[in-house]
């Protein structure tokens, strides 16, 4: 799968997030933010952007753990994306920032050769 298709799906996931946030559908927004994170974590800009939107979601839901965690993850994404990322990590504070996960079934096609 080409990098362009992965990038396009990242943008698609973020568009879903924006609509869900506008409708206050926070669980839906978070799920698609996790997808965006998985898709974007090997790219400095997309990785950081996914954490930025998780921060926005944390602010909208007044979740202090998510707010603090995402501020830290934004800095970590800037510092470490080009060095190492835990593949499949969903990016929320509900999971360790260094834990690798399986790629979600619906996203595997973006990672196969």
What does this structure look like?
The protein is mainly alpha-helical and 113 residues long. Helix content is 61%, strand content 0%. The chain is built from four helices and no strands. The protein has helices at residues 3-22, 26-40, 44-60, 64-80. It is globular, with a radius of gyration of 13 Å. The N and C termini lie close together (6 Å). The mean pLDDT is 94.
H/E element sequence? HHHH
Q: Which value, in Å, is the CA radius of gyration?
A: 13 Å
Q: Low-confidence parts lasting 5 or more residues at pLDDT below 50?
A: none
**Which structural class is indicated by helix and strand composition?**
mainly alpha
Estimated share of beta-strand residues:
under 5%
What proportion of the residues is helical, as a percent range? 55-70%
Biggest sheet: strands, sense, closure? none
Number of strands: 0
For the termini, the CA-CA separation is 6 Å
Average pLDDT across residues?
94
- The rough form would be described as globular
H/I helix tally = 4
């Amino acid at each position: 799968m080409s990098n362009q298709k992965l990038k396009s799906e990242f943008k698609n996931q973020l568009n879903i997030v924006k609509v869900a946030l506008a409708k206050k559908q926070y669980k839906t927004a978070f799920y698609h933010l996790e997808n965006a994170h998985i898709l974007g974590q090997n790219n400095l800009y997309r990785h950081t952007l996914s954490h930025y939107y998780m921060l926005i979601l944390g602010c909208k839901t007044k979740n202090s753990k998510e707010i603090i965690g995402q501020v830290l993850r934004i800095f970590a994404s800037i510092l470490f994306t080009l060095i190492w990322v835990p593949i499949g990590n969903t990016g929320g504070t509900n999971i360790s920032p260094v834990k690798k996960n399986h790629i979600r079934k619906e996203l595997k096609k973006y990672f196969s050769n």
